[in-house]
Predict the structure.
Amino acid sequence: MTALDAYNFAYLDEETKRMIRRALLKAVAIPGYQVPFASREMPMPYGWGTGGVQVTAACLTPDDTLKVIDQGADDTTNAVSIRRFFQRTADVAVTEETEAATIIQTRHRIPETPLQEGQIMVFQVPIPEPLRFLEPRETETRRMHALADYGLMQVKLYEDIARHGEIATAYAYPVKVEGRYVMDPSPIPKFDNPKLNDSPALMLFGAGREQRIYALPPYTKVESLDFDDHPFVASKADHACDICGATESYLDEVITDDQGGRIFVCSDTAFCRSRQEDAA
Amino acid sequence: MKPLFTVRDLEKRYGSRIGCTDVSFDLWPGEVMGIVGESGSGKSTLLSCLAGHMTPDQGQVHFDGRDVLAMSEPERRFLARTEWAFVHQNPRDGLRMAVSAGGNVGERLMAVGARHYGNIRETATDWLGRVEIASDRIDDRPSAFSGGMQQRLQIARNLVTGPRLVFMDEPTGGLDVSVQARLLDLLRGLVRKMGLSAIIVTHDLAVVRLLADRLMVMKGGRVVEQGLTDQVLDDPQHPYTQLLVSSVLQV
């Protein structure tokens, strides 16, 4: 018996996939709204992308080409194990090239290569509620979303400026979707926030532990919240990649020894490698 | 002139017990009304019904010609943070303890659409000054403030949007007498200067004597006497009011 026969296609049973697809349809119909869904136990711990994996499983077809990244990299533990999971349970083609993928599951990054129509981005979300650390009561945050009562979100940014002189929130930077729902874009760096706006790709967000799904349909207007006199800035390290020399990509700082040595490298490994190959 | 706030035949029951019943009054622009009574007399229930925190079982409440009870929740919330204000007895109920003083004052401004940091901060500084909090405390959290300062901060946070009607639930409760006196002085100044209408619930007759133009005395959920403050306190008619007035310690 091959591994594929032991499981239903893409691990989840068809009833569960149908339930998730219903939640996805609702999420696409109401951009930025958090749709509850009956999250299943997955063969991986919470925090490893159980929400993203369920969304990917519900979207996968045998013809799809899957790319999985973790902090931009294709070769980190989380990315490798999820990619291998879908190779075993769905036998789908996998790739590291952003252009070649039809579904990209990601943790904490959006690829540097611009997305295209027909592609699906699946985000792994730890805490879907942008207001959670300001208002602990779920009943109250739901009411705030229902009434678009978002003054509190602005208070958080005010506190940032009061304490640090600028909006110090660097990741999970809150956005407003189509002028209505305030949404947590998952912990992507705020450098990636502009890529959410008017994107040709479908963006799906899955939070397994918190049992929420939300979505951005293609070409949705997504604004990052800010103040008139402290506008949103998509910041990155002021440096070029030490491997490929790119100045426009988001960088990781890597410590190389215990003598204070450090280099900056592209966080998107596929992007960095394609630049190296082009240069060679 | 038209009354700002009218209440007719308001009733709230908890099962078969009466919370408050048969309450009617008019509040005029710039007028301060005190509601006094012992614990359990229904004064807090009444205030909650008036401020929209609880839904009364019967009666009508109109604010500036608008039916408050028929409003949708977004409308009522908007009203509650623009034209109304609510000062809680315990400042912890009315403040965000994890947010700086400036953020607390600015929240109402941001909730109604202010998006200019410099202006919000300037207004917050101005209001901290008006309630006698030093401007260098603007980035401190309320948890670092004394009880009296917290209460003053709560007042600043509520008045920053220039409301027309303020509900206060025992605003001086839990403060020592010298702090109480300062707070009352401050409140009296703000109320007169801004021409606010206010409804103050208290069991402290000294507070209403100082602040209120008119007085309503409650017992067992009913209004037993109402009239001008000095009139009621100097010449109480109802036996309960007589008891209340005579039980104040004369130092």
About this structure: Chain A has two domains: 3-224, 236-280. Chain A touches chain B through 17 residues (CB under 8 Å). The CA atoms of residues 72 and 268 of chain A lie 4 Å apart. The longest strand of chain A covers residues 65-70.
